[in-house]
Specification:
By secondary structure, the chain is an alpha+beta fold. It has four helices and four strands; from the N terminus they run H-H-H-H-E-E-E-E. The chain has a four-stranded antiparallel β-sheet with strand order 1-2-3-4, with helices on one face. Strand 3 (169-182) and strand 4 form a beta hairpin. It is rod-shaped and about 110 Å long.
Length: 197
């Protein structure tokens, strides 16, 4: 807003000065009246006025529309990634114990992916031995903070766990997903539970 107003103000000032000089009375005239604008000066001032408006529109577009669009695109992207990795981290099938881990780690930075695999290995072994399966679906997603290179997203999941001979258990999980942008791509740094206070 400020940049566009400054552009308009500068343009208006130039127009006023230009008009003042173009209509300045002749020094040797007996009656000091402002001269009418000739067609060339009129066209010149009109072109300057249009140019000022165009400059203000371009400045406004570059200052607001482009950043807003970029923020909207980034927000949609991090929400999608956060939802997908949260569901993957809370989903498990004994028949393919590494499927959800592979899906989750494909969205992570290399360092985080390695740590996630190591952490999940023992859990996967335990769930497989008990033939427990788990399925999760996203209930709600909200961006806590986002910047050009980092974001934090809260995800609420409904998770269902089942085992042969036992009734299914359903729970609501709250996770925080932190992401960073590397080489133009959003990657997950961490997935952690949000503890109620």
């Amino acid at each position: 807003m400020t940049a566009a107003l400054i552009t308009l103000a500068i343009g208006a000032l130039i127009l006023i000065v230009d008009w003042h000089l173009a209509t300045k009375p002749d020094a040797d005239a007996k009656i000091k009246r402002r001269k009418p604008l000739n067609p060339i000066d009129r066209k010149h001032l009109r072109d300057m006025f249009v140019g000022t408006l165009v400059a203000a529109v371009v400045v406004g577009y570059l200052r607001w529309t482009v950043p807003d669009r970029a923020l909207g695109n980034a927000s949609a992207e991090v929400v999608g990634i956060a939802s997908s990795i949260s569901e993957a981290s809370a989903t498990f099938a004994p028949q393919s114990p590494t499927a959800s881990v592979d899906r989750a780690t494909s969205m992570m930075s290399p360092k985080s992916a390695e740590a996630f695999k190591n952490e999940f290995a023992n859990v996967a072994k335990d769930l497989t031995s008990k033939n427990i399966s788990a399925q999760a679906s996203t209930v709600s997603v909200g961006i806590e903070a986002i910047g050009p290179a980092a974001a934090s997203v809260a995800v609420i999941l409904r998770a269902t766990q089942s085992a042969p001979g036992n009734a299914s258990e359903t729970a609501v999980l709250a996770l925080r997903v932190t992401l960073s942008k590397t080489d133009g791509r959003w990657l997950v740094d961490d997935v952690s539970p949000i503890h109620s206070r």
